[in-house]
Amino acid sequence: MSDFPSRVLRWYELYGRKDLPWQQPDAYCVWISEIMLQQTQVQTVIPYFERFMQSFPDVIVLADANLDAVLDHWSGLGYYARARNLHSAARTICDEHDGAFPQRFDDVAALPGIGRSTAGAIMALAYDERYPILDGNVKRVLARHGAIAGWPGKTDVAKALWQAAEEHTPESGIRDYTQAMMDLGATVCTRSRPQCDACPVNAECAARKAGTIDQYPGRKTKKAKPLKQTTMVLAVSDGSIYLERRPPAGIWGGLWSLPELSSGQVGDWCRATLDSAGWGIESWDSLRHSFSHYDLDIQPVVVRIDATSRKVADNDDAIWHSLDAAPPGGIAAPVQKLINTLKDETYAQNN
User: Which member of 2, 88, 181, 237 has the greatest number of CB atoms within 10 A?
Assistant: First the structure.
């Protein structure tokens, strides 16, 4: 067997990260961190993780929490399906596992939002059991080390990477090895400007020998992102703003947001929704927000509504929310940016 894992473990002992707040043999803690770390860097995750754990210290508290509260703790972290899946998985754990985080790989992998690599990471980090992982950082290390060409999203490339992950995972020291591989990809074998001289397995790295480090891992063929447009209405009345809850699925699912219109018929919307024609309608400069698959140009329109004639929101999915109050739940970053701009403008006008 190659001494790959022993080299990685020796490197970890000297240089690995050992003070991250989720580095403890607790499955719930590891699970929350692994979901947050999907598509998100460690330094961004740390304050979110600490706040989340203070509010939802165990799976039972999380399962009993209102989804709005969970999404509020996720605001700004993006990829909100992760938060909805956490909440759903917590309820599954309570219903099917008596509130105890499962200890079998198949049960962990069956939870909403957990795939093979995340399940493996939980089993390895929480229970010290031998399961390989293949997150973005590990893919990069293994692709370069073995010169495994192609985009990892392709079935044959993924199969080759999983085989390499399985072959290199040692029989013992699983917890440290798993953390070491993630650290190695995050701090040494980085996407750009990798520190090859500091890598513990550089002597046998096929890509380094061939001088082709920048070719691994292969990248998906880029397509021009489509541009979509929408109008968002900032209906304000007596220090409150009108918010609607988005549908549970799709972009920003379950979050509180501004009403969206596909056309500029703001007056018609005000009459139909708020029983008011509105006055002082004002258009702001458009705001562009980028998603992974498309760009969205948001046209903000501010509408002043007479408080004496406005329609009272009469359901759980629409509210008049005080601008001075804490958010009613999760709010997407660009929507919160528009609300903050409105608050700043309102404050300036009143002072």
Answer: 181
**Quick one: DSSP state of residue 201?**
T
Residues annotated as part of the active site: 34
β-sheet bridge partners, residue 242: 320
- Element housing 346 (H / E): helix 333-349
- Spans of all domains in the chain: 4-215, 227-349
Tokens of 173: 């020291």
Q: Are 266 and 231 in contact (CB under 8 A)?
A: yes
pLDDT tens by residue, 140-183? 999 999 999 999 999 999 999 999 999 999 999 999 999 999 99
Can you tell me the distance from the alpha carbon of 212 to that of 216, in angstroms, rounded to the nearest whole number? Answer: 7
Query: Is domain 227-349 annotated with CATH 1.10.1380.10?
Result: no
User: Is residue 333 within 8 Å of residue 298, measured between CB atoms?
Assistant: no
Residues 171 and 132: their CA atoms lie apart, in Å, by 11
3-class SS shares of the chain: helix, strand, coil, % to 5: 45, 15, 40
pTM: 0.85
Whether domain 4-215 has CATH 1.10.260.40: the reply is no
Minimal CA–CA distance to 83: which of 126, 49, 130?
49
